[in-house]
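Structure tokens please, single chain.
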Amino acid sequence: MSAITLMELKRRVRAQGAPAVAQNLSDALRQKYLQPEDFSVRDLFESLHEDGTELLRDIGKGKSGQRSLLEAAQAVDTGAFTGIIGQIVFTKVKEAYTDAEFLWPQLCETMNSQFIDGERLPGIGRIGDKAEIVSEGDSYPNVGLNEEFIDTPPTRKRGAIIGLTREIVIADRTTMLLKSAAELGHWCGLNKEKRVIDVVIGTANNYKRNLTATNTYLTSGAYINSQTGNALDGSGNEWRALEKADLLFDAILDPNTAEPIIVSPDTLIVPTALKRTAERIINATGIQTVDMRVNAATIRTESGNPYGGKGLKVLSSPYIKIRSGSATRWWYGVPRKAFLYIQIWDIETLQAASNSEQEFTADIWMRYKVSERGVAAVQEPRFMTQNDT
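Here you go.
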């Protein structure tokens, strides 16, 4: 049952007018004072159209005759009604698209762009330690910045269309409309989730720096940020796996200066099989070190957890294993510095023009196109490491 009754809607329309009421309701949806479930499509139709009650009776089930449906077309073209329905659809789509279970908002930084076929992102390489001793009367040495750039992959457009039919209005199938919007939003969000995860875990490789394409994770070459023999297996020395990953960061050098890149990891990405182990590592209040002598002289040293209180996040999803094909591989670093989502436009809804052919042939009174365009890209792989058994 809708939270806003038909009587209340009609009272507001008489006092403020349909456009003002529709605008106020849309604002309340955007500000989350109201939810899509608080509305009835039929009540909105009846209250926001001048002759809504009579029109519903005329086009409802059991009504016969030769009455032209032109009035119906005019009804659904009413700006007040179409506007609030569009906001309801968009709110439900966006709510499902940004489901808290999705990892992608925490895995990449979003960058707006206008270049649909990819672009060249310029960077300025660091000059390195060029400060020299300058003797009295001598000239200071000249230094220059190193130019560098990455090329991003082309973006892709994805989406689908939701229709508001005559039957949805007459039978007040608001739940059906909301479910369709939520389903579309969810699958758009899940599609983005899989594409971002593929780039983060190195299943999809699109890193291209200074015209040279390389995989995101390397065991040799320009940088080494992938290693085996580093299991996160709960053997009793789990924190040492993180330490070994930290030491891998220590060995990664800036390509321009050959100086170490200082990385402060904030995220641990694991398949579900390693989720509880990872949580135990970072939440342990202390650790115990044993000297491995099984006799009376065995020494046990207790100390605080070296990774406790560091603010490390554990991110996990069934799709980590599904997309990587491994239940033992894990990733560690600062993903939002390593990866971008290049966005031409965010998730949006656009309403089709009124008086379309489908209004007459299929009783689809309104259609809303939901779409987004973007691509996940590698910005700097040196901020991430990949680890496995």
